Amino acid sequence: MKYTNFRRAAIGAVLVLALGCILLLRDPNRVWGERDYLLASAATILIVLNLGASYYMDKRNHEKSLKAR
């Protein structure tokens, strides 16, 4: 089974996390405010939902292709 959607979502998640790490490393002494925590938690939730949805879509597409055979 090819996980094309899942791969795309995983690559996007890695890029978002890498960008977040780069932004944190630019100014490590910065004090986080409530807005920063909300943005980080929202990004985490969106990444998890995106990965789950893409995995489900790949699984469903694979099952459809097996039925078509």
What layout of secondary structure does this protein have?
Layout: H1 4-26, H2 34-68
The number of distinct structural domains comes to 1
- The portion of residues assigned to helices is over 70%
Query: Can you count the helices?
Result: 2
Shape: elongated
What does this structure look like?
- This protein is an all-alpha fold and 69 residues long.
- It has helices at 4-26, 34-68.
- The chain has one domain (4-68).
- The mean pLDDT is 87.
- The chain crosses the membrane at residues 6-25, 37-57.
- Keywords: Membrane, Transmembrane, Transmembrane helix.
Question: What key phrases describe this protein's structure?
Answer:
membrane; 69 residues; mainly alpha; 0% strand; transmembrane; transmembrane helix
In brief, what are we looking at here?
The protein is an all-alpha fold and 69 residues long. It has 2 helices and no strands. The chain crosses the membrane at residues 6-25, 37-57.
